Amino acid sequence: MPSPDCRLCPRLAAYRREQRAAHPGWFNAPVPSFGDPGAWLAIVGLARGLKGANRKGRPFTGDSAGGLLYETLGRAGLARGSYTGAADDGMRLKGAIILNAVRCVPPQNRPTTKEIGACRRFLRPELDGLSNLKVIVALGTIAHGSVLRAYGAVMARHAFGHAAEHAIPGGQRLLDSYHCSRLNTNTGRLTPTMFDAVFERALEMRG
Q1: Are 162 and 68 in contact (CB under 8 A)?
Q2: How many helices (H) and strands (E) does the chain have?
């Protein structure tokens, strides 16, 4: 986990300082992962949202993407409680944990290739620390690529596609999904039914 004042990425560090000055009551630091330390399922997202996790201090909290994700996890039996958009709403995950490819908030929610690579040093150790891990769900192409590179997989052999499945070094399985962003849900690229199916498949892959 990066320090609260991580300086690996100068652009992200400068943006974090700007947000701390503008919003001193916000979390405004690399956001830790959230969920069950004994998880068999890891959900990897893109980066922290400016008014979501960067504000609230919990992944996928305070934005529309979080509402869909936590509701979907609840239907799959992987979450307990009611999501309200607040980090203290009592939401708990069972058998699942949420991580991000990039731990800090990037301007316009667009990390650079260099920033994604710099943050990957935190992803693989955290995944390796999950002794029960069997399935990884990647939300979007950046998360997909970051997971594959973290495991040293050959990218050309693993094309991203919604509901696509991949065997990765170490024995785990990678399952792709379109990101549950407002853009994807508003355009119909990702529907609640499609998202439910991803986690239903993850449960089947658990064995």
Answers
A1: no
A2: 7, 8
Give a yes or no: residue 3 inside a domain. no
Backbone torsions φ then ψ of 20, nearest 5 degrees:
-65, -40
16 and 105 in contact (C-beta within 8 Å)?
Answer: yes
Find out whether 12 and 28 touch, Cβ atoms under 8 Å: no
**In which region does residue 94 sit, left (phi positive, over 0), alpha (psi from -120 to 50) or beta (all else)?**
beta
Q: How many residues does the chain have?
A: 207
**Number of domains comprising the chain:** 1
Q: Is residue 2 included in any domain, yes or no? A: no
CB 13 within 8 A of CB 7: yes
Closest C-alpha among 207, 204, 199, 203 to residue 71? 199
Q: Quickly tell me which residue has 């853009």 as its tokens.
A: 183
Task: Using CB atoms within 10 Å of the CB of residue 152, give its burial: 0 to 12 exposed, 13 to 18 middle, 19+ buried.
Answer: exposed
**Residue 124 CB burial class (10 angstroms; 0-12, 13-18, ≥19):** middle
Two structure tokens written together for 67: 């509402």
Q: What is the pLDDT of residues 32-54, one digit of tens each?
A: 999 999 999 999 999 988 999 99
Upper half-sphere CA count for residue 206 (Cβ side, 13 Å): 18
Threshold 0.90, pTM exceeds: yes
Domain for residue 4, yes or no? no
Hey, what are 141's tokens?
């192409």
Residue type, 170: G
